[in-house]
Amino acid sequence: MEQYDLIGLGIGPYNLGLATLTTEKSNLKTIFFDQNGQFAWHPGMLIEGTDLQVSFLADLVTFANPTSKYTFLNYLHEHNRLYKFFFFHKFEMPRAEYASYLKWVVEQLPNCHFKSEVKDVIDHSDHYEVVVNHWGEQKERSYFAKHVVLGTGSTPMIPFELDDIGSEHVHHSSQYVYLKDRTIKANDITIVGSGQSASEIFYDLLKLQEHFNYHLSWYTRSPGFLQLDNSKLGQEVFTPDYVDYFHELPFQERKDSLDHLGQLRKGIDRDTIHSIHELLYHRSVDNKKLPVTIQPLTEIQKVEKNGSSLKVKARQWQKDEDVSFETEKVILATGYKPNIPDWFNQRFEGEIEWEDDKRFKVDDNFKLVFKDRKRDHHFYTLTNLEHSHGTGATNLGLAVDRNIQIINEIAGETIYEEKRDTIFTQFDPN
Description:
Layout lengths: L2 E7 L3 H13 L4 E4 L17 E5 L16 H7 L3 H7 L3 E3 H12 L5 E2 L2 E8 L4 E7 L4 E12 L3 E3 L13 E3 L3 H8 L4 E5 L3 H13 L6 E5 L20 H8 L3 H10 L1 H4 L4 H14 L8 E4 L2 E9 L2 E8 L4 E7 L1 E4 L3 E3 L3 H7 L30 E3 L4 H4 L6 H16 L19
Parallel strand pairs: 1-2, 1-8, 2-5, 8-19, 10-17, 11-12, 11-17, 12-13
Antiparallel strand pairs: 3-4, 6-7, 7-8, 9-18, 14-15, 15-16
Helix pairs in contact: 1-13, 6-10
């Protein structure tokens, strides 16, 4: 029976980084599966002119091995774009170019397989059996591994029932680019959310507004449309040092800390929010009335069909007042939730320890904690980690450190050095 050291479930940036690092510098035998037909990173949000909120150093490999041939800088070099990026004068990667970089990497890796849906994972006491439907070949096959890692990412969060309303009328921000041509033909467009995705969509539609005839609205339940705090010392929470500190806190303290650090974790990039305000200001010269509504403190509770339009019911929670209005399109930039496969709960819900009804317990090296702790075959997870490893659970730079820890533990030796004592801030008084 052929057995792998590690099987990866899902191929997004996190597992792709793991696949890359194991391929390049270890003797680990690994294979990764993804149900999609090909690799694609958030294709519905690749709005022209948008950048990531992190540095190009937060690619798949640099924090582990800056000399790797899979760095973003080498991608630029291979595509004769290094001088162009040099004069771009930014640390941030354009979103579209980051997506192209990821695709460039995955096309070079022999251990990444698409059109391959993981249907089940069976624990055989000393190894795992992973059942895969290779739907492109109409074939089902079992693979065996000492360890598995869950990297199934997230799925769109829809905060209320949509009944039978089609996606052409109400859709998540993840579909924005696909439906944009239809959206801009409406008379009224409403965006819901207060983060970077909401702001990018609002700005994109605001720039187009003069060429069309729609009223543009932006609502959020948050207290305001707040700028992301990217202060240099503040951002040091996105480091392995802080993750180590955070993981040692009691569960309730960890939950509370996520709220305390809200502005470091969620918010609108400075350039985006400034560009929005400047465009609004220029268009309002002579106090011209703008076909724009921007309203915080308002939670959208229900959207229902009303003839050819939509009726939106909301609540201004600070004044405890009901709000209702009509619109033709609603775009929900309401974030994401962990994508946990059905087979996971069926197989493992009763076998692992939980911190509450939704959050499983994860040890410091990203392994699920089983009730039977005497095991040498492990189930790692890169999904649903916010409660266990904090603010950086979805941070691209910290994904590399996660992968380093997993690789070193599986290999039983230091393949990549784990960097600590890397910042000026001290979190633990001892």
